[in-house]
């Protein structure tokens, strides 16, 4: 063996030896229960996905995955808890896009830095969002809702899972593009918002299709439209808002994150296990039936998506002067 070749082999050997503990750490994970923090109340689409994913990962890896709901402040309370957790792979954060693309623009005093304190693992799913009204509201489509809101002295209230969520921004974008008189009522999750629309405490809402579908089928709610660019397989007869308001589109998604400092080998292991769980045909079908479209990707792809959407929503927030009520 020549000296240059011997030196190359030695370098490779040293590099592999240095990486061995990291690989061993990833292979040993998990050897105790894993906590998945969900910064929203039970009952919404994020909660549905978190519990399906926890069950699948637990069955695959032989450890318990525990979903911990920590709602409040549009997801900031639970997100702060995850950001401050020990970065050992035993605390994960499952959250919506708004935590990263909206909250930094409306919460100037957040006690954590999303970019520095959390690392992306994978995008998980796109959420079908619907514009629904209580069955007693005398409108049947988007155009009628816009006209109805303008005709009312106090406008029309609409609920969402919280200030700054994509569901909230869907309403603000509709206001901006049509001049509709819509008054936002924020909740601590999709479940509480749904309950008040069902009880007619608030007449309309932008809520995930996953949670409204059964109530639309029962006739308690009317689904006027979906916010994404294309019609949803879950509700194929419902038009998109864009079919009435050209250029309108709002897509929401859910992603998985870990505290910064989590070893890359564990991040990659979690990513691989999540992909395996989500891309299983049975899992994809189960989530699809709840209007959750599986989108498993890489950490880099999720980071890029956050960057692009952060710019888009930041502009809308500035233009519409969205603020958090004190």
Relevant terms:
11 strands; 326 residues; 20% strand; 2 domains; 5-stranded mixed β-sheet; 6-stranded mixed β-sheet; D-Maltodextrin-Binding Protein, domain 2; alpha/beta; globular
Number of domains: 2
Question: Architecture of the largest domain in CATH?
Answer: 3-Layer(aba) Sandwich
**CATH class annotation of the largest domain:** Alpha Beta
SSE class: alpha/beta
Estimate the global geometry from the Cα principal axes. Answer: globular
Number of strands: 11
Strand fraction = 15-25%
What's the overall average pLDDT, rounded? Answer: 89
Written as H for each helix and E for each strand, in order along the chain, the element string is: HEHEHEHHHEEHEHEHEHEEHHEH
Structure, briefly:
By secondary structure, the protein is an alpha/beta fold.
Describe this structure in words.
The chain is of the alpha/beta class and 326 residues long. The chain folds into 2 domains: 33-126 and 251-320, Bordetella uptake gene, domain 1 (D-Maltodextrin-Binding Protein, domain 2), CATH 3.40.190.150; 129-243, D-Maltodextrin-Binding Protein, domain 2 (3-Layer(aba) Sandwich). The protein has helices spanning 3-28, 45-61, 76-83, 98-101, 103-106, 114-117, 142-151, 166-178, 190-198, 209-217, 264-278, 281-288, 299-320, and strands at 34-38, 65-69, 91-96, 118-127, 129-134, 156-160, 182-186, 204-208, 221-226, 252-259, 292-294. The strands form 2 sheets. The protein has a 6-stranded mixed beta sheet with strand order 2-1-3-10-4-11, sandwiched between helices. A 5-stranded mixed beta sheet has the order 7-6-8-5-9, with helices on both faces. β1 (34-38), α2 and β2 form a beta-alpha-beta unit. α1 packs across α11. It is globular. The model has no long low-confidence stretch (mean pLDDT 89).
